[in-house]
Amino acid sequence: MKAQDIMSRRVITVRRDTELKDAIAAMLEHGISGMPVTDENGTLVGMLTEGDLLRRSELGTERHRPRWLEFLIGPGKLAAEYTHAHGRTVADAMSASLHCATPDMPLQQVVDMMERQRIKRVPVLDQGRLAGIITRANLLRALALVAPTLPASLPTDEEIRQQLETELAASAWAPRSMLNLVVQKGEVHLYGTILDGREREALCVAARNIPGVTAVHDHLVWCEPTSGMMVEEPPEPDQPGQRGA
After folding, report:
1. Which H or E element spans position 44?
2. Phi/psi at 51 (nearest 5 deg)?
3. Distances (CA, A) of 101 to 43, 48, 98, 211
4. Partners of 187 in beta bridges
């Protein structure tokens, strides 16, 4: 899947010379938390987001630091922060640092960029012109469309076991050599030893995601490497219609 497959092509933008109050009104009107900023020629020059509006003099939330720390930071950065907190145009408050995608960029690279840069939206540029934008909402919509469905015919127990074996073999975290997988009538039984408690849930998730699996039974034992303490598997949940004693 590529960026152009999920991006929003209708992009709400704002000019860099727009009054900040008008930009805020536009964000509220359209129900968006950020928008690209362009210059008078339509060239992308920055992003204005809710995060850029947290430190504002009107709210009394501008940064206040000890004098000794201000001395270390230097006047240049302090001056930039003052402009950011007191400015009246979009150019004063926007983030000029841009992280963009192209229409044919693989979605994996887009998500890697969003995580690495800790951003919630990525403009998509086609030959330097703004062609769309990808937000976390776009990713959720794409995920909803490709959610796995059961095949027309259910796989056999052996096919389920083989699919799970293949999935775990491709996962660097899976302690494959210490596991025993048993499948009976579509129900997966996980036996063996794990060295990290988080592996338990990951193994259960991997099993549940195999088409045709109707239940997953956790019989794993957690061995804490440092202390050697052994933690038995959790009790099986009550079956529907049953009550605890």
Report:
1. strand 44-49
2. -60, -30
3. 15, 17, 10, 34
4. 184, 215
**Token match 């929003």: residue?**
8
Could you tell me the domains of the chain? 3-145 (3.10.580.10), 157-231 (3.30.1340.30)
∠60-85-71 over CA atoms, to 5°?
Answer: 95
Instruction: Output DSSP code: residue 128.
Output: T
Residues contacting 98, CB < 8 A, separation 6+: 44, 45, 46, 47, 123
Tens digit of pLDDT for each residue in 143-193?
A: 887 766 555 678 899 999 999 999 999 998 888 888 999 999 999 999 988
The DSSP line for 58-105 is: GGT-S----HHHHHHH-HHHHHHHHHHHH--BHHHHSB-----B-TTS
Note the pLDDT tens digit of each residue in 54-99: 988 888 888 888 888 777 877 888 888 889 889 899 999 999 889 9
